[in-house]
UniProtKB/TrEMBL annotation:
The lineage of its organism: Eukaryota, Fungi, Dikarya, Ascomycota, Pezizomycotina. PANTHER family: 2-OXOGLUTARATE (2OG) AND FE(II)-DEPENDENT OXYGENASE SUPERFAMILY PROTEIN-RELATED (PTHR47990). Keywords: Iron, Metal-binding, Oxidoreductase. GO terms for molecular function: metal ion binding; oxidoreductase activity. Belongs to the iron/ascorbate-dependent oxidoreductase family. InterPro entries: DIOX_N (IPR026992), IPNS-like_FE2OG_OXY (IPR044861), IPNS-like_sf (IPR027443), Iron_ascorbate_oxido_reductase (IPR050231), Oxoglu/Fe-dep_dioxygenase_dom (IPR005123). It comes from Aspergillus sclerotiicarbonarius (strain CBS 121057 / IBT 28362). This is Oxidoreductase. One of its GO terms (biological process) is small molecule biosynthetic process.
């Protein structure tokens, strides 16, 4: 039987009920081991900012192609800005049926993080109907999602029998990237992919999706794709390859894809949490026995990201790893 990623009530994290908090930790632990994916409700991200960022995505992709191309992510080396339709390809075919726009945290000129992995000065299309609104909405969304990421990592710490704040230094000055995505309607021939099967290569991804559906997650036990159907107000959380490595493969970074069969345009906003670029990722102590060797050597976040990006650029983008690189590794864990 195909099992979809669970929907988990995150509200107990903000409450005082110890039993409900413990149940939340247990549910997240099971989801990390079984799926590498889960959806959360009652996460305190206001519905108005969710709808506002989706509306800005609709507007930016409604600009003429020649305007969007002026803000192409290929113009400078930090990979921010517009990515044209079919620029990525996860698998065979003409390229994935989507277009995107990358944004990082809004840095002031001269900030020391500018120029490091996928961080720099954002490109804000002056042709937007309300440029100030676009900029403020993107920045507000970045802020609230970064805060939520800290909360999720505090639950993850407890799932690994760590002190709640164990991941805080990893999250400080995290190299977070937001990606606005538009998926056109797909022909009903079964050959197209909005985005082909892949894993994310950072620490954690928090995804806002509209109500059109199309996200599928690989269910290892049934060896079939499971639909992660949209739940009103919910956010999808999935683990990346760096966290899988960090936990000595205890937790799963799972394959997922999008097939937009809704007959309408689909919009989503993944928020990639990669961590502090200087942070040293080495096997979490609770993820191996005292006499056991770690499967992977220590590596800094920036070294990991740059190596993965070098492996996948041309077929995958910031925060994603293509099927041909990781599928065998992921599937052998079933």
């Amino acid at each position: 039987m195909v099992t979809a990623p669970p929907v988990i009530d995150f509200g107990p994290f903000y409450g005082d009920d110890a039993a409900k908090k413990a149940d939340l930790v247990q549910q997240v632990r099971q989801a990390c081991e079984r799926h590498g994916f889960f959806q959360i409700i009652n996460h305190r991200i206001p519905s108005d900012i969710q709808e506002a960022i989706l509306q800005q995505a609709r507007e930016i992709f409604g600009l003429p192609l020649e305007v969007k191309e002026k803000y192409s992510r290929e113009i400078d080396p930090v990979n921010l800005g517009y990515e044209r339709l079919r620029a990525q390809s996860f698998g065979e075919g003409p390229g994935d049926l989507k277009e995107s726009f990358y944004l990082c945290r809004d840095f002031p000129p001269g900030h020391p993080l500018i120029g490091r992995f996928s961080l720099g000065l954002n490109k804000y299309p002056k042709e937007m109907r309300d440029l100030a609104l676009f900029q403020s909405t993107a920045n507000r969304y970045h802020t609230v999602m970064a805060d939520l990421a800290v909360d999720i990592f505090r639950v993850l710490a407890q799932t690994l029998n760590l002190e709640e704040h164990w991941f805080d230094s990893f999250c400080h000055d995290s190299a977070n990237i937001m990606r606005l995505l538009r998926y056109p309607p797909q022909p009903a021939n079964g050959l197209e992919r909005g985005i082909g099967a892949h894993t994310d290569f950072g620490g954690l991804t928090i995804l806002l999706q509209d109500d059109k559906g199309g996200l599928q997650v690989w269910d290892r036990e049934s060896s079939q794709w499971a639909d992660a159907n949209p739940v009103p107000g919910a956010l999808v959380v999935n683990l990346g390859n760096m966290l899988m490595r960090w936990t000595n493969d205890r937790y799963l970074s799972n394959l997922h894809r999008v097939i937009n069969t809704s007959g309408q345009e689909r919009y989503s906003v993944p928020f990639f949490i990669s961590g502090n670029l200087d942070y040293l990722v080495e096997c979490i102590p609770s993820c191996k026995a005292a006499t056991e060797e770690a499967k992977y050597p220590p590596i800094t976040v920036e070294e990991w990201l740059e190596a993965r990006y070098a492996d996948t650029y041309g077929g995958a983008g910031v925060g994603e790893l293509s099927t041909d690189v990781v599928e065998a590794h992921v599937m052998t864990r079933s």
